[in-house]
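Run folding on both entries below.
>entry_1
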Amino acid sequence: MELNKHSFPVNITLEDAISKFQKEFDKKGHKVKIQKDQMHLNITPYWVCFYDIDSNKDGNYQHISGQIALNSLTNKVENEFLKLLNVSTPQVIDALDVSFERVEIRVKKSLINQAEAQETITKVLSSKYNVDKKNISLSGFEEMYIPIWRIDIESHELYMDAVISKINNFHIINKKSRSNSELFSEMVEEIKTPKGLAKYIIEFVINVFKAITSVFMLFIKNWQIVLIIILAVFIGFLIFF
């Protein structure tokens, strides 16, 4: 697919993306099976620039510098994507690899021009560092396209960068509690094999030992109260019986 954009490369394949999404759902107890046609790849534009801030409040001079990234679709700062610059350098990519033609690719058109991005970034920095806009200098403006895997499933709209797969919003997947029947079925499946049975027995013994230890430690810490209770029961027995 033709791209001709200054973009990060797509390093995470469709199969890798499906596998990573699937593992997150499995880990949190969701019974879903992700299909290829549920996935799509967004090529999302960002404005990235450097900033320098000089402030002099009450005779205290301070210089602050850094880099900032603005999503050109939402007009919101999303600095987490700056992490990608530590592992890869955006290049003008003429076309995406043909192996990605099996999935829908959506090249997003930038909705924010450079002047608008500069105004937004200046406002954000002014508010964050409590400085006047005139003390903020922006430089090195560049429009970069970031490939992001997306999936809409079980009322979740999940994303994951297609460069290193580390930038994502997997935290929004709620953890499902399993019913007693599901837990029992899982236990039965586990103990069908010698290895699973041995693991179950070891865990059972460890849990019993922990329970006995907890009771013993509770007795040690509260031996006076326990002794009083025993004496009270004994005295009551003598009086009434």
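>entry_2
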Amino acid sequence: MNPRVERLRATLEEPLLVTNPVNVVYLSGFKSSNAALLVEPDRVRLFADFRYAEAASAVEGVEFEETARALLKDLAQRLSGRVGFEADYVSHTGWRTLGSGSVEPVPRSGLVESLRAVKEEGELEAIWRRARSPIASSSGWRTSGSPVVPSATSPGRSYSSSTTRARTRSASRRSSRRVPTRHSHTPARATARSGPARPS
């Protein structure tokens, strides 16, 4: 039993047709540019065309059905009744295509995304491993302690804390200096001009 599918199923009011490839991978582990996953109360069906038939048939926990390459058009004739669809991913044309047969498409938003936002223990460990990788360390990120925070200096430059404090004090002194101003009631001093010497 897939816990992600079960968590999603508990939030549904009708079967949900998942067509966003990222969400299909999240729920089933199947990668394809032209596939759909239908989560129903008692089963999960995976739809894809002949190019992905072999790989889709090997996915555990789903019932694979081969479709035409025009996926939504095929599903419009294959399915019926109220079916939720990912309104944030399916275009208006896709919505009309899906509703051209016996399907009553119901727009739904963010159902799978809300599950993805809550990270599982394995996902958190993977994120932490990536953060601790040499690539992350060499890009100016410090990984001391539990949270991953950006370093105070830019990549490739190193400043000691004493140098930083000295520069801060110097900038503070410069900003505190008062610039003298000339008052409007003080007449300006005339400056004598020296002309060229007359010949004797």
